[in-house]
């Protein structure tokens, strides 16, 4: 069975008569050429209409606090994408500026007949698409190439826990989890060679350069495939035990590639299911890749204020309000937190790991955010600082996974009510003593300090 492309994986945003000179694939969330159903659909449509296909990416001057660390990772991946597109006979344009202006201009210049867009649940991306459609007024559809089960097909409403979401996604996997396919070369090749002035693009960047690139990970589709092979061969077996120990090298390290869409979740899941690793390890990984990750998309898609306490469940908002004025034993200024200058050596090490590597261990991301709730004056301040630091330093920041994870930690999203305690109310509490019972905290701190 091949991956379903039309039907539930794609949905029409604007119907209309198709008249023009080419089909446009607007690449945004899924920055890859292989295993990309949105590009595949654009090529299929172009072949049906006997038209060439062009792909574009619009480089916004700023995006939710991203620094050179994130922009550079993205741009290096896009340079590889351009080469891959050109090899297939597909055009590429790297636009610079605000997408709501630049994309309609491209549509007009190239006389676009039909446009395929990536699905993205974040407010800013949805606003871009709405503005482009309002300005350009041409037929368009969007394809969810970022989830294995398309977000709108997985559930039509906000899911309040993994327990309610899991059976819906699991049932749908029989239809959607299949061998990935890639776009073929269009029957009508693009008429021009690539013209991107990459040196000029790099010189023109005006983003924060104090958060520099990291050397432990290489960007792009090829590197993502290599990282996937390494994980399948070396770390998938034993994953269920090693994943929650920050001392061990047990995680997949695929989250930056997933965030930028440089590897398809469909590809990862397909390869994992076909591996000979123990079933318990495969199940543990797929739970995170599919259920937990796609639950985050569901949250951001159905909750407009996903990045504020307004998105917390009612029981958590009420409970936190009851403890709003509880005394904090420790409190820190935002600058102290960013510089990892607290009394808690584990929290400091986790913050330093994020600042230096652009990635924090999953278990520690929960602990890290919960301590912000404990030390900040209000849940609103804790949420704001957590999002700012996460999006500034993490390679995979500015992502539904990040927003949902912070909301889980601070506001009980996708969790249940726990016995009430100071400051946290009924939101789950995590402690340094609890961390020590799960892994060698001192070894982790030494590991970070030695990097």
Give a quick precis of the structure.
The protein is α/β, with parallel strands linked by helices and 451 residues long.
Describe the structure.
This protein has 20 helices and six strands. It is an alpha/beta fold. The protein has three domains: 1-146, Rossmann fold, CATH 3.40.50; 147-179 and 221-302, Serine Threonine Protein Phosphatase 5, Tetratricopeptide repeat, CATH 1.25.40; 309-449, DNA Cyclobutane Dipyrimidine Photolyase, subunit A, domain 3 (Orthogonal Bundle), CATH 1.10.579. It has a six-stranded mixed sheet, sandwiched between helices. Helix 2 (68-87) links the parallel strand 3 (53-59) and strand 4. Helix 6 (162-176) crosses helix 12 (279-302), helix 11 runs antiparallel to helix 12 (279-302) and helix 17 runs antiparallel to helix 18 (400-411). The protein is globular. The termini are far apart. Mean pLDDT is 95; it is low at 1-6.
Q: What is the structural class? A: alpha/beta
CATH architecture of the largest domain: 3-Layer(aba) Sandwich
Sheet with most strands: 6 strands, mixed
Any idea what the shape is? globular
Can you give the helix content as a percent range?
A: 40-55%
Query: From the alpha-carbon coordinates, what is the Rg to the nearest angstrom?
Result: 22 Å
Output the CATH topology of the largest domain.
Rossmann fold
Number of strands: 6
Q: What fraction of the residues are assigned to beta strands by DSSP?
A: 5-15%
**What's the CATH C level of the largest domain?**
Alpha Beta
By CATH, the superfamily of the largest domain comes out as HUPs
User: In whole angstroms, how far apart are the ends?
Assistant: 46 Å
The strand order across the widest sheet is 1-6-5-2-3-4
Would you identify the regions where 5 or more consecutive residues have pLDDT less than 50? 1-6
Instruction: Please give the count of helices.
Output: 20
Q: Please tell me the overall pLDDT.
A: 95
Spell out the helices and strands N to C: EEHEHEHEHEHHHHHHHHHHHHHHHH
Q: Give the total of domains.
A: 3
